[in-house]
Amino acid sequence: MADPRTYRPAPGSIPTEPGVYRFRDEHGRVIYVGKAKNLRSRLSSYFADLTLLHPRTRQMVTSAAGVQWTVVSTEVEALQLEYTWIKKYDPRFNVRYRDDKTYPLLAVTVGEDIPRAFVYRGPRRPGTRYFGPYSHAWAIRDTLDTLQRVFPVRSCSAGVYKRQAQLGRPCLLGYIDKCSAPCVGRVTPDEHRAIVNELIDFLAGRTDAIMRRIEKQMLEASADLDFERAARLRDDLEAMRRAMEKQAVVLGDGTDADVVAVEADELQASVHVFHVRGGRIRGQRGWVVEHTHGIDDEGNFDATRAVPGIVSDYLAQFYGGEADLAEAAETSDIAAAVPREVLVPALPEDSHELADWLSGLRGSRVSLRIPQRGDKRALAETVHRNAVETLTQHKLRRSGDLTARSAALQEIQETLELDAAPLRIECVDISHIQGTDVMASLVVFEDGIPRKSDYRVYRIREAAGDGRSDDVGSIAEVTRRRFRRHHEDPAHTPDETDGPVDDESDSDAKSTASRRFAYPPQLFVVDGGRPQVEAAAEVLAELGITDVPVIGIAKRLEEIWLPGEDYPVIFPRHGEGLFLLQRLRDEAHRFAIRAHRGARSKRMTTSVLDDVPGLGPSRRAALTEAFPTVSALRKATAEDLCAIPGIGPGVAAAIQTVLESDSKATGESARDMTDSNAQDRNRTDDAR
Question: What sequence ranges are listed for the domain UVR (predicted)?
Answer without folding.
Answer: 208-243
